[in-house]
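Try this one yourself first.
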């Protein structure tokens, strides 16, 4: 039987540690538990918000409705395919896959959150995205409580985007991934390549374990630990600009770094560089500030409020638009 809590504090359920409440809360450890709680909510017309570890959300007020925390566990492998429960910790899955000699997730090491949340954001790092590995997801339709499967195309993946982010009608209970028995690695990303070289490792010969260790070390060095400095990782998306947009931005930032993509007319621009160039690294409003480690990360110090964080974010957005004539987009979900 499920345990439904009323007027529940979500302070321990989001990585910013904001103390907002929700009318109904349930942690579900099985698909049956999920469907029982969804049925409870459907009968009462209560909107449902799925939750993993809360590492990519910004709570701004009391949630009128229900939060369903997905804690469905389980790991299965068949040949190169793996099925992962939606409640499994993502980094644990990366390490587990390496132990099973299945490769392809090592570039995504140490990304916070759960396996079920990974497709929502289409998590990516160091030249890889989960969309390139995902075969299908098992989901419950929140409108009718039906258990169905969506293939990779039906997930409508984009850069840090998916159908799950745009249409809030699915609860992910498990994901199916295609991994590799081959130990060939992707070390094309510039900072990963440089790190391996500094460690006297030939990037073209790097093993999955070496890549995982390198990515883990890089992330620990450049990103604040959310358990110590509450944050949601990158608060903004990096920029992808066409040639005309790139040239226009270079008129304002002459030393602009940019990188080619698979699309000849599209270039990736690291937004952290622009924020730092604008003199906003370390910028503080109230008890929230831009991280001194990484300019894409906004930190909520103890005693801070969601209003202060949103105010800081709005200030950065307006300042970049005013000084560099470019719109920037927030990555986490604002609730």
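Now uncover the answer:
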């Amino acid at each position: 039987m499920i345990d439904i809590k009323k007027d529940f504090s979500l302070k321990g359920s989001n990585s910013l540690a904001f103390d907002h409440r929700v009318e109904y809360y349930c942690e579900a450890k099985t698909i049956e538990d999920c469907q029982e709680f969804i049925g409870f909510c459907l009968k009462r017309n209560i909107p449902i918000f799925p939750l993993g570890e809360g590492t990519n959300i910004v709570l701004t007020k009391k949630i009128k409705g229900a939060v369903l925390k997905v804690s469905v566990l389980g790991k299965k492998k068949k040949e190169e395919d793996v099925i992962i429960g939606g409640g499994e910790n993502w980094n644990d899955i990366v390490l587990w896959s390496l132990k099973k000699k299945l490769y392809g997730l090592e570039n995504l090491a140490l990304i916070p959150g759960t396996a079920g949340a990974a497709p929502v954001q289409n998590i990516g790092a160091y030249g890889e995205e989960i969309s390139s590995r995902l075969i299908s997801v098992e989901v419950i339709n929140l409108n009718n409580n039906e258990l169905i499967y969506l293939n990779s195309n039906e997930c409508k993946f984009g850069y840090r985007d998916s159908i799950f982010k745009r249409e809030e009608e699915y609860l992910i209970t498990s994901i199916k991934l295609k991994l590799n028995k081959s130990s060939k690695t992707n070390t094309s990303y510039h900072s990963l390549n440089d790190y391996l070289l500094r460690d006297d490792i030939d990037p073209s010969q790097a093993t999955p374990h070496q890549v995982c260790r390198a990515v883990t070390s890089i992330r620990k060095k450049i990103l604040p630990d959310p358990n110590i400095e509450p944050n949601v990782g990158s608060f903004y998306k990096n920029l992808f600009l066409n040639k005309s947009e790139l040239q226009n931005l270079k008129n304002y930032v002459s030393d602009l770094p940019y990188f080619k993509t698979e699309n000849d007319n599209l270039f990736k621009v690291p937004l952290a560089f622009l924020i730092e160039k604008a003199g906003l690294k370390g910028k503080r409003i109230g008890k929230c500030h831009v991280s001194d480690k990484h300019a894409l990360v906004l930190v909520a110090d103890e005693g801070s409020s969601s209003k202060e964080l949103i105010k800081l974010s709005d200030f950065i957005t307006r300042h970049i638009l005013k000084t560099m004539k470019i719109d920037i987009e927030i990555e986490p979900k604002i609730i």
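Discussion: The CA atoms of residues 100 and 245 lie 45 Å apart. The chain has a mean pLDDT of 95.
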